């Protein structure tokens, strides 16, 4: 008479095989995306190649093609993951603040979170602000940019109570433009000099917003 428990005893090992394969695949994708980030930062998107990415990852081009059909697919996957993380970052950084929060504190906290993200992922700036990014990334970045502006407007509304919406929107555009210009300088430096540029960026934003805040509370 066959043992009833024999087949079920073998099932966990069989079921774990696809999970192990999936885990290996995720690790390989992460490895390839990390290599792509390094290549895109050093050469730019246009000059980058799948061969260079495979070489940076320490794998054969054939291994790369098992996961990505071309360079654009790699950039899109990398961009998607970075934009997801960026949305989480600005959700935390640009939440409304108490009206009693000092302006310099509110601005400094938001800038620090954004700078930390971009310093962790310099490829984000390289991909999103380059002249030759894939069309899908450009479209998603435009959507991200629009959402980011709305978040900045929400933060400014709490910092500048009573300001007309059109004025808040204009101020948000200026703040984002100043930040982007400052970010390029920040990423071009390291160590203490980078920190000095971060502080200069904060100073510019605070000094721009201070008269506006004073006018609303006068």
From TrEMBL:
Q: Does the keyword Protease apply?
A: no
Residue segments, region Disordered: 1-25
In terms of PROSITE patterns, this protein maps to:
HTH_TETR_1 (PS01081), HTH_TETR_2 (PS50977)
Annotated keywords: DNA-binding
> Where would I find the HTH tetR-type domain in this sequence?
26-86
Protein's UniProt keywords contain Kinase: no
Q: Looking at the record's lineage, which domain of life comes first?
A: Bacteria
Q: Which Gene3D superfamilies match?
A: Tetracycline Repressor, domain 2
Alphabetized InterPro entries for the sequence: DNA-bd_HTH_TetR-type_CS, Homeodomain-like_sf, HTH-type_TetR-like_transc_reg, HTH_TetR, TetR_C_22
Which residue ranges hold the DNA-binding region?
Answer: 49-68
Report the PANTHER family cross-referenced here: HTH-TYPE TRANSCRIPTIONAL REGULATOR RUTR, TRANSCRIPTIONAL REGULATORY PROTEIN
What name does this protein carry?
TetR/AcrR family transcriptional regulator
What is the originating organism of this protein? Streptomyces cinereospinus
**Organism placement in taxonomy:** Bacteria, Bacillati, Actinomycetota, Actinomycetes, Kitasatosporales
